[in-house]
Request: fold
Amino acid sequence: MSVGESSTPLGRVRGLGSAHHGGEHWLTERVTSIALLLLGVWLIASLLILPTLDFRTILEWLHAPSAAIPMALLIIVGFKHALDGMKVVVDDYVHDAGNNFALNTFLLFLAVGGAATALFALGRIAFMGAA
Amino acid sequence: MAASIFHRITGGALSVVGLAVLTWWLAALSGGSETYASFTKVATSIPGKIVLIGLTWAFLQHLFSGIRHLVLDTGQGFELGVNKTFAVLTFVASVLLTAALWWYLLGVAK
Reply:
């Protein structure tokens, strides 16, 4: 049955709306934002506290779990929050269903690919032989 | 209104440029000291510094206007005066903090 044919009010509105999972998406965006507030401040504070920002110092810092773990979380939560935010912008401005799907899929691939690249690099640093 | 559109602009910049720089930085580190040197050469050049200072400001602006949005989500702060003051404060705080951070970074580095 198409949208207009339904006889009940609920039937007429069911399936309408832009994202179909708006509530969950909305909440996830806010929860990740609070996590990024903590992780972002951690990153800036850490870089300020380090005596220098040369290769050895940063490598030693990221080698320790106390920095590698928050960095891994920053990468995962950062890319997730970026993807959620970009989806809101795309859904607001790109209304054609095909273009909307194509752009959101492209951004999904970009975010997952970027996160995988950053995590792999971090893993290489963290699991490198004794520095 | 300005705070709201800047939230989107800074969010977009952080998503694309910010995460690209973070990924590049980590990839360069994992590649060894020579690869890292090629990163720092670009990052410490004048255009590199402008991008990093811009990203610092974008992060802080997004952070403060994000906090503003979280407060607005609870249904508070919609009175005209309060709302405007809060929006202006996000810009004041982000610009001052960016200036302070880079004044410290550039002063210590060299």
Summary: Chain A touches chain B through 31 residues (CB under 8 Å). Residues 21-126 of chain A form a domain with the 3 helical TM bundles of succinate and fumarate reductases fold (CATH 1.20.1300.10). The radius of gyration of chain A is 21 Å.
